[in-house]
Design a protein that fits this description.
The structure holds two protein chains of two kinds. Chain A contains no helices and 13 strands. In chain A, strands 2, 4, 5, 6, 9, 12 and 13 form a seven-stranded mixed β-sheet that branches. In chain A, a hairpin with a 4-residue loop joins strand 7 and strand 8. Chain B has no helices and eleven strands. In chain B, strands 2, 4, 5, 6, 9, 10 and 11 form a seven-stranded mixed β-sheet that branches. In chain B, strands 1-3-8-7 form a four-stranded antiparallel β-sheet, with no helix packed on it. In chain B, strand 9 and strand 10 form a beta hairpin. The chains are: A mainly beta, B mainly beta. The interface between A and B is medium-sized, with 24 and 25 residues.
Chain lengths: 126, 107
């Protein structure tokens, strides 16, 4: 059974940092593109970042570029999101999600968010 | 960025009704298009990918059609467990973008 378990969320002041983790099990983690998708309170879904199966291709939404860093450790079946210079508008539930497809040179193929974790809440407030 | 416009933003229908949701992309996305269901307090769930292919295990009352800029999602016979918000999503170009969602309620 596929399991994705996010952790690391919490309350942080504006300008602060957090590191989110996503522990994966039940599938061959190293074969999948991994993603972070967030949902602000009462709002819709927003794609945040993707990392290819090898870690060589990384993409970010403009809203987080330069502040967030996605990474993965295939030996530990884990995905990470380092979030710096946090703003109030980053307040959201952050989900990790698998993707059977891939993106290359800015174009995505067979890309769909197949499996999702339960999410971790990030609140940025003074 | 490709904008995804979903309509309606909410709807109320009776059990057994046929429900239709539309999504329009701001530019041609071919069939690079997915639909998700998010029940209250839960993570989203993939229902349909590549515009019309039903994800494994998803009931056949759900269907999708369309290509290019105009897409349709249909529930052929609404069930109580279908109470949720439904989102469309394109992957033709980065950034990956979602529609604003359609909240489906039982009348």
């Amino acid at each position: 059974e596929v399991q994705l378990v996010e952790s690391g969320g919490g309350l942080v002041k504006p300008g602060g940092s957090l590191r989110l983790s996503c522990a994966a099990s039940g599938f061959t983690f190293s074969s999948y593109t991994m993603n972070w998708v967030r949902q602000a309170p009462g709002k819709g879904l927003e794609w945040v970042s993707s990392v290819s199966s090898s870690g060589s291709d990384i993409y970010y939404a403009d809203s987080v570029k330069g502040r967030f860093t996605i990474s993965r450790d295939n030996a530990k079946n884990s995905l990470f999101l380092q979030m710096n210079s946090l703003r109030a508008e980053d307040t959201a539930v952050y989900f990790c999600a698998t993707n059977e497809g891939y993106c290359s040179n800015g174009v995505c193929y067979k890309t769909r968010f197949d499996q999702w974790g339960q999410g971790t809440q990030v609140t940025v407030s003074s | 960025d490709i904008q995804m416009t979903q309509s309606p933003s909410s709807l109320s229908a009776s059990v057994g009704d046929r429900v239709t949701i539309t999504c329009q992309a701001s530019q041609d996305v071919r069939k690079s298009f997915n639909w998700y269901q998010q029940r209250p307090g839960k993570a989203p769930k993939l229902l349909i990918y590549d515009a019309s292919i039903l994800e494994t295990g998803v009931p056949s009352r759900f269907s999708g059609s369309g290509s290019g800029t105009d897409f349709i999602f249909t529930i052929s016979s609404l069930q109580p467990e279908d109470i949720a918000t439904y989102y469309c999503q394109q992957y033709h170009n980065l950034p990956l973008t979602f529609g604003g969602g359609t909240k489906v309620e039982i009348k």
